[in-house]
Amino acid sequence: MRVMKKILATLTLLFCTSAFGVTLKVGVLAPEGTNWANSLKKMAKEIREKTNKKVKIKFYFGGSQGDEPDVLRKIRVGQLHGGIFTGKTLGDINGDVRVIELPFTFYHDRKKALGIVKKMEPFFNEKFAKNEFKNLGFFEIGNVYFVSQEKTDSLKNMMGVKIWSWEGDKLVSTMIETMKFVSVPLPLPDVLSSLSTGIIQAAYAPPLGIISLQWNTKVKYVIDLPISFSVGAFLLSDKAWAKVKPEHRKTVEEIAAKYVSEVNAGNEKDNSDALAALKSQGIEFLKFSKEDIERGKGLRKEVIGKLKGNLFSAEALKKLESNL
Questions:
Q1: Which pick of 15, 46, 177, 270 has the fewest CB atoms within 10 Å?
Q2: Considering the entire predicted model, what is its pTM?
Q3: Under a CB-based contact definition with an 8 Å cutoff, are residues 117 and 230 in contact?
Q4: Where in this chain does the entry annotate a coiled-coil region (predicted)?
Q5: Mean per-residue pLDDT for 26-38?
């Protein structure tokens, strides 16, 4: 009887997929109403139209499905089919991607960073495939800035400041530990309230994230030197991608690529506008000395030494360095 039920359930699934198409449920942290969210909605609409309603994407915006690790867990158990992931969670799936986010690599040169992501994309995608994910495109999250309630205009003055680190993020926790700072691991949604209550005094994000997450209301200073470059990716589980008919896959890939480019152009402008907004609000921009910048290069080498073969492979590092 159980065998018959399983057969019937499988046949029903196959029938529904072929007759009515597939709906892909995707979790996103980007809030509703942002340029990013609007572009994703247009992507979903065009995919639905160009595939004759055989492929539908339902985005859950604003972290309504939880933090990124929650979204990944829901994908693993089949409650969701995909997510747009950044940093730590992206690294949980494919640690090699994190070489792009190593500290003190690109400084203000976001174009160079994005160019290297493009060159390394085939390599990264092979690793995603091995880990049973399909990548529909890399997003530019942007240059990451350090924000604080304390005047941290030197590496020395950052000592003792309680800095948020994304819970479970090996890269950030290793960087903070190497620099001998105070790390306070927390989920992303807890950062704003923790800045309010004094649990943490500092955090880090691209300017767009600082504004979107309202951290700008709780900080007084920004270090005017990007510590890293952050990327994201639109990932679907292999099981979900397999439900998309072969004749529709190229259409989905092409439309996704178009809107990923649109999001990246929008994010560049939004990050630039967000930096200007931070300045207009009276948040002070601090400069590091040349000595501290040079010391940062040495700390980068230490971080690499601790994470190579642990978070990312020697092969990924070699590819990054050769492109640099």
A1: 15
A2: 0.86
A3: no
A4: none
A5: 91
